[in-house]
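Hey,

Quick one before I head out. I ran the complex with 8OG overnight. Inputs first:
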Amino acid sequence: MSSQVQKAEVQTLVYFLRRGKVLLIEKKRGLGKGFFNGVGGKVHKNESVEQAALRECEEEICALPKKLHWQGLLEFINYKKREIEMIYVHVFLCKKWKGKVKETEEAKPFWFKLSEIPWDKMWEDDKFWLPYVLRGKKIFASFKFNRWKLINGNVMVLENGRKIKTRN
Ligand code: 8OG
């Protein structure tokens, strides 16, 4: 019996960096509520991935990136009975922005030292790919979940379009 793709969406994630620290938000609602994550969400109809990333930063923490650095693409495939949900997430770094980072109805922001990232309060897959992104590497990663419980995954670190490392 075949499975059906029920949902396929494109999302964004932005990691702000400042003086050896990364900004993570505690999400107050939506998928990943209570977890720490980068800033992001769904790309709406009629907007580009970059426009969506900028809009989400303004909405969630009131800061507008001056420049976004594209770091890669994540593929999340979630199996639920005979349904499949696919999420493609474009990941960016941001080192310069306008406005002061503020808490909003959606998110509470916290700065973490790169050595003190709260991996146990983040999506299970993050520890496999985020360290590369925070070091400025470009990645492509794919993860399979069963009802959002991680089953397996694969991370490729890319350099000038060339695969340099694969991790399962
Ligand atoms: O607005 P909404 O709650 O739909 O936002 C979901 C955000 O969560 C979006 O930015 C994409 C992100 N996201 C997933 N899965 C994972 C994951 O495994 N790790 C991380 N870091 N983010 C994820 O949907």
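The domain at 4-167 is CATH 3.90.79.10 (Nucleoside Triphosphate Pyrophosphohydrolase).

Talk tomorrow,
K.
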